[in-house]
Design brief:
With 109 residues, the protein is an alpha+beta fold. The chain is 31% helix and 39% strand. It is elongated, with a radius of gyration of 15 Å.
Length: 109
């Protein structure tokens, strides 16, 4: 099983925390960290923009990524949200096992 760190940016702490809670509750991520605020400068629809954003780091497995990405697109307020997954190539074995356990789909009775 592979593990990923997923980067997402958003325009408010409240929005980040709302999305993070929903993703953890759905077991799509084991952890959702919110960092910020930060300043983002980017080109959007032909114009250079600058905005205050919060950076979010989510820990998940490769098996859960497609569903995570789909849920993020639905929950996120941006037209084109930043969703970038980076493989975790090494880490503390117990922590990686924790990610796997916390993102395992819930067993329904």
């Amino acid at each position: 099983m592979g593990h990923l760190q997923v980067i997402v940016s958003i325009d408010s702490r409240e929005g980040a925390e709302r999305i993070g809670r929903a993703l953890v509750e759905a077991r799509l991520v084991a952890c959702f960290q919110v960092i910020g605020p930060m300043s983002s400068i980017y080109r959007w629809k032909g114009e250079i923009e600058q905005a205050e954003e919060w950076l979010c780091l989510a820990k998940t497995t490769t098996e859960r990524f497609d569903e995570l990405r789909e849920r993020l697109v639905v929950l996120h307020p941006y037209e084109n949200p930043e969703i970038i997954a980076t493989p975790i190539v090494a880490g503390h074995a117990d922590y990686l096992q924790w990610i796997s356990a916390e993102t395992a789909p819930a067993v329904r009775s």
